[in-house]
Design brief:
Blueprint lengths: L1 E8 L9 E8 L6 H12 L18 E4 L2 E4 L5 H8 L2 E4 L6 E3 L2 E2 L2 H9 L10 H5 L25 H5 L1 H5 L6 H11 L6 H11 L13 H5 L6 H14 L6 H16 L7 H6 L3 H16 L14 H17 L1
Parallel strand pairs: 1-5
Antiparallel strand pairs: 1-2, 3-4, 3-5, 6-7
Helix pairs in contact: 3-7, 7-8, 7-10, 11-14
Bound molecules: iron/sulfur cluster (SF4) (2 copies) and FE2/S2 (inorganic) cluster.
């Protein structure tokens, strides 16, 4: 079968903007997008630049934007892509600077991984302290790394992240998933965990995630970064880090539901922003628009009938949490 491939090209030495180029290629059975790209480079256009190494979904270097989604080219079947989309369109990963064609600059990605201190701070000289076996420790049965250690650093989640798109300083899903692995590690001392969480709750950290789930959808290794971020948020609250607006949004939300049985949008700004008059005035126009559309309930007398049952659920949940 002969298929057409549309590939984004960009050479910073000659082009002002990226542009699309079409290539036609005979496709064999079971061929992957990476195999097609290598053949295009070898047989049709040697100037095409792409990055790859293992060809086995291990090294993470061939992540690209294929038919609108971040994927590993080496494990993306051309036949399936064509059946689903009726075309094959390949672009570099979004949200990262392009070096040339399909090759992006991963430095911002690595800078963020480094920023979360991706190692156990308790072990500065493992061989000196623990001999040639490093630090051996039996982990409690209840302890889980979840799947964050499966990350191959492909950058697909960062490229797909909606928060990263508008706020490039956001630490991003891969780095935060990596951070969670060390916050959850029983070998990390309590003071170090507190310090990690204190840093992670700052601007551009855990509270910047919009929970859009894109990182979970595109991750080729089922790392589920958003779930790791949720675990970090839970840890931050459990460690008493409740002063950020993100944390106050959660505690305020829970508070309102416990007291009134449902969310009261009229009181949420006070719960989240507090008595910062300037900030409150800045959200006032939105509040007025919501009120005109009937979206803001009365701040008074909002309690639902049967509120005692809802409070009983909260009490039972608290008792259960204490037992766990
Ligand atoms: S869930 Fe959060 S971290 Fe994941 S892609 Fe969406 S905004 Fe980014
Ligand atoms: S979390 Fe998944 S998508 Fe993100 S870098 Fe790691 S393997 Fe790639
Ligand atoms: S070439 Fe290594 S993951 Fe695709």
């Amino acid at each position: 079968m002969r298929l057409s491939f549309t590939i984004q090209r960009f050479n910073p030495e000659t082009d002002h903007h990226p542009h699309q180029e079409d290539y036609r290629l005979d496709i064999g059975r079971g061929m992957t997008v990476l195999e097609a790209l290598i053949r295009i480079k070898n047989e049709l256009d040697g100037s095409l630049s792409l990055r790859y190494s293992c060809r086995s979904a291990i090294c993470g270097s061939c992540a690209m934007h294929i038919n609108g989604t971040e994927k590993l080219a080496c494990r993306t079947s051309i036949r399936k892509e064509f059946e689903r989309h009726g075309r094959i369109s390949i672009d570099p990963l979004p949200n990262l600077p392009i070096i040339k064609d399909l090759v992006v600059d991963m430095s911002p990605f690595w800078d963020k991984i480094r920023a979360v201190t991706p190692w156990l701070t308790s072990i500065t000289h493992p061989t000196r302290r623990y001999g040639s076996f490093g630090q051996l420790q039996l982990l409690p049965e209840t302890y889980q790394f979840h799947n964050v250690d499966a990350c191959i650093m492909c950058g697909a989640c960062v490229a797909a992240c909606t928060s990263h798109e508008v706020s490039p300083d956001f630490l991003g899903p891969a780095a935060l998933a990596k951070a969670e692995r060390f916050v959850a590690d029983p070998r990390e001392p309590a003071a170090a965990k507190q310090a990690r969480l204190t840093a992670l709750q700052e601007a551009h950290g855990i509270w910047d995630c919009t929970r859009c789930n894109m990182c979970v959808q595109v991750c080729p290794k089922d790392v589920q970064p958003m779930e790791a971020i949720i675990r970090l948020r839970r840890s931050a609250l459990q460690h008493g880090l409740t002063s950020t607006e993100g944390a106050r949004h959660i505690t305020g939300f829970v508070d309102l539901v416990r007291h009134e049985g449902r969310l009261n949008e009229a009181l949420m700004p006070l719960k989240v922003i507090g008595v910062d008059i300037r900030r409150l005035l800045s959200v006032m126009p939105l509040g007025i628009r919501m009120w005109l559309k009937g979206k803001v309930p009365s701040p008074f007398g909002h309690t639902v009938p049967g509120i005692e049952q809802i409070r009983a659920i909260f009490s039972a949940a608290r008792r259960l949490a204490r037992r766990v």
